[in-house]
Amino acid sequence: MPRRFRTPRRTSLAVAAAAGVGASVLVAAPALAHGYTSDPPSRALLCKQGAVTNCGPIQWEPQSTEGPKGFPQSGPADGTICAAGDSRWAPLDDPRGGTWPATRVSSGPYTFTWHLTAAHATTSFRYFITRDGWDPARPLTRAQLDPAPFLQVDYGGTRPPYDVAHSGTLPAKRGRHMILAVWDIADTGNAFYQCSDVDFG
């Protein structure tokens, strides 16, 4: 007995048409900004490289730690800063008992680098560091950071290159610390957050 094929209803055709239009819009939309710090390497990059395991999906998307901008007045909640407030990247907020690999650094001149997988109009790149006496065995909070960035590079809405370098000066510190790099996007409500563990010795 031959199979009968039903003629699609008008509503089904309308839904299919709408889906096709949506797909076209998604394809045509400009790429969103993404990027990660490569020097000092961020926790996200260490996960991508396999230097740290049990990271969850951030190992495939180290460039995607995107959250609300306006830090420190607003932005990700305390304890979720390294993951940019996104629960998918929560392993980045886990202090692992203070055992994340730390890059050896010294106070003084330092060149900070980012690798961008999608550039975007930029307000600034800002770099914060933890206070003396902070607890590396606890998730990062605003109270653990020096209140002002030790380095800020303004872009005035221009688009940075895909590999970015910023020359600055690391403040006088001792022992383990964390550097929080914040990339503020000019034409969206978001920023990118990258946490790097460092050791001043």
Automatic annotation (TrEMBL):
Residues 34-198 form the Chitin-binding type-4 domain. Residues 1-33 form the signal peptide. GO terms for molecular function: monooxygenase activity. Residues 61-101 are annotated as: Disordered. SUPFAM superfamilies: E set domains (SSF81296). InterPro entries: Cellulose/chitin-bd_N, GlcNAc_Chitin_IntDeg, Ig_E-set, TAT_signal. It comes from the Bacteria. Keywords: Monooxygenase, Oxidoreductase, Signal. The keyword Ribosomal protein does not apply. The keyword Amino-acid biosynthesis does not apply. PANTHER family: CHITIN-BINDING TYPE-4 DOMAIN-CONTAINING PROTEIN, GLCNAC-BINDING PROTEIN A. This is Lytic polysaccharide monooxygenase.
